[in-house]
Amino acid sequence: MSQRSVVSWTAMITAYAQHGQAEDALRLFDEMQIEGIEPNHYTFSGVVKACSSLAALEFGRHVHDLVIRTGFQSDVVVMNALVDMYAKCGCVGSARQVFDKMLEKNAVSWNTMIAGYCQKGDVGEALKLFWQISKPDIISWNVMIAGFAQNELEDEALRLFCQMREVGMKPDKFTFASVLRACAGLVALEHGKKIHAYIILTGFESDVSGITALVDMYAKCTSLDDASKLFNKMSKEAVDANSMMVGLCGQNWHTDGVMELEIQTLKSKVVSWNAMIAGYSQNGYGEEALKLFRQMQQENLELDHFTFGSVLRACSSLLTLESGKQVHAHIIKTGNEADVIVGSALVDMYAKCKVMVDACKAFEMLSNRDTITWTTIIVGCIQHGWNKAALQHIKKMVQGGMKPDQFTIASALNVCANLAALEQGKQFHAHFIVSGFESDDVLGSALVDMYSKCGSIVDAHMVADEMHSRNVVPQIAKVGGGTQHGLGDVVVRSALIDMYSKCGNIENAYKVFGKMHKRDVVSWTAMIAGLAQHGRGMEAIQLFQKMLSSGMKPNQITFVGVLSACSHGGLVDQGYYYFDCMGREYGIIPRAEHYSCMVDLLGRAGYLEEAANFIAKMPVEPDASVWGTLLGACMVHGNIVLGKHAAECLLELKQDASTYVILANIYAAEGQWADAAKVRNMMRERGIKKQPGCSWIEIKNKIHTFVAGDMAHLQSDKICAMLDSMVGRIKQAGCGPNTEFLLHDLE
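and the corresponding C-alpha cells:
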C-alpha cells in the first residue's frame, strides 16, 4: 500500500494479535510510531492484547504511557485491556490502580479485575469485588466460580453455584465446566451425578466441552464405567459430526466456518481423550490407557503434553520400559521433550523402570525445572541407592534458587538418614524451619526418623516432644478442612514407636505404645512390626488379637507385620491361618510382599519343597522378592537344586550381579564347572560386575566411606588391626564364618 492510514495499520496489528502472532503486532506498532501515525483506541486495544499474550510488561507500560499522553485514558475498552494486561503479567496491584482510576466501568471491567485476583490466588479480594457488583451477569458468576475451583476452594465453588441458582441466574456450559471441576477436585461423585442430571435437564448434554468435563469428573471420581460410557458416546457423535461437516462442504456452505467448527471439535475431542487416558492411568488401569493412546495415534489426533504425561504415568505403573521408550520416541518426534510436565513424567518412568542413567539424561534435557521435577529425580536416586547423587541434586536445587516443598525436604531427610549424615540433616532441619514447614507433621516424622537413624535419640525425642506440644492446641492442626484433636499426637507417637523399634529399643517402643490414649491402624501396625523384627513373634500375634478385639480393622501392611511375626517365630500353622483370613474375613487381596512373607515363613522352617509348591500355586506371577526369598532360604539350608532353580527364575526378572554370583557358586559347589564358567561369561558379555560392599559413617560433619578391598583411608592400618582383633575374639567365642556358599568376586 502506498498510503497506509491508521485504519490499515490497526487492522494488521489487530489481526496479528488475534491470530497468535503477538510479536509481529508489537513490531508493527513500533513501525507505525516511527512513521508518525497516531494510534486510535482500536490500535491501543490490539497492541495491549498482544502485550498480554506475551506477558510483555515493559512494552505494556510504554503503551500505557502513550495512552495517557494521547488522552485515551477515558476510553473504557482501552482501560479494560490495560487491566487485563497488568493482571496477566502478574501485576495485580497495577491492574487495581488502573481499575480504580477508571471514570467509567462496565461489566467487562469488573469481570477482568475479578479474574485477575483469581489468577493471582487472591480469591478473598476477588469475592469482595464480586459482591460490589449490583447485578452480576453470567460471566461474573462464572469467573468467580472458576476462581474458587482453580484455587482448590471447591466447596466454595459449589456453594456459590447454589447461590447463583437461588437468585435465578441460569448456568451455561462454562458454569458447568467449573462446577464439575470442583466435584472432581473433591472426588464428590454424588454431587457430580446431580450436576450431570441438571445438565441433561437444561439441555447442555450434547455440548462437547460439557461431555469432556463430565468424562474428567467421572474419571477423577474413579467411576470409570460412567466415564467410558460418555467417552464412547462422544466418540460416536464426533463421527456423526464429521459426516455432517463433509456434507456441509459438499453443499457449498462457507468452508472457513466449517473448518473452524471442525478445529474446535477436534480440540475438544483431544481434551476428552486426555481426560480418559488420565483417568485410566490414575486409577491403575495402565493397559487401557496405553490402548487408548494407540487409538489416538491411529486416528491421527494431535498428541500434546497432557497426553504424554498421562501415558507415561501408565508406563510407570506397569513398569513397561519398552512402551515407555516408544512413547519417548513420539515425544522427541513432536518436539515435547523439553516440556516440564513431559520431562518430569519421563524421569519418573525411567526411574521406576530402574534405568536411572536414562532418567538422568531426561532430567538434564530440561532447561526449565519445577519443584516436582527436582523431587522426582531426587526420589528416583534414593530408591536406587544413589544417596550421594540425591544429595547433590538437592544442593543444586537450593543453589539454583528453587524453593523446596515438604516432599523435597522429606526426601533430603531420607537421604541423610540413609547416609547417617547427621550434620547435613541438621542443616536441612534448619532450612525446613526457615521455609515455614515447622508445623508439618509429615516432615516432623521424617525428622524423627532421620535423627533416630543417625543415632541422635535426644534430638529425635526433642522433635517428637515439640510436635506433641504443638498438637495439644486444638485449633492448630487442619488437614483437608479440619482434623480431630489428637490426630497429630497419634502421628508423632507412631513415629516414635517405629524409631525405637528400628534402634533396637523395643521396650521403649512398647512404653510409648502403652501410653497412647488413642491408636490408629498405623500405631498398632508399627508395634506389631517392631515386635516381629525383634523375634518376638508370639507377642506380636497376641497384640494383633488385641487390635482386632478393640474393633480396629487391619490393612495390608498390618498383615505384612503379622506374617513376618509368624516367620520370625516359626509359627507355620498360624501363618497359614492369617494368610487365608486376609481375603476371607477382611477382603484384602494378597500382594507380592504377603507371598514373600509366606515363602520366608516356610523357608525359615526348612519346608523348602512346600515353599516351592506354594510359589507354583500363586494366582499371580511371582516377582523378584518371592524368588529372592526362596533363594536365601535355599542358601541357609543347603538345598543346591532348588536354589539353582530359584536363582535362574530370579535372573529372568532381575539382572542383579549378586544373583549371578550366587548361581555360579551353586554350580561350582555342585561340580558343574562348565555351567559356572557359562554364568561368568554371561556376566562379562552383559557388562555386569558385582559391586564391592560399601559402608560409611559421619564424624565431625565428614563422611568416611569404606569399600571392600580398598585401603585408601588414611587410618586403614589401625582399622584393619581393630578388625583383626575383633575377628580373633569372635573365634575365641566359638563362632566362625560359613564359607560353603562364599560369594567369590568373579572378576
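(Above: one complete record from the training split.) The chain has a mean pLDDT of 81.
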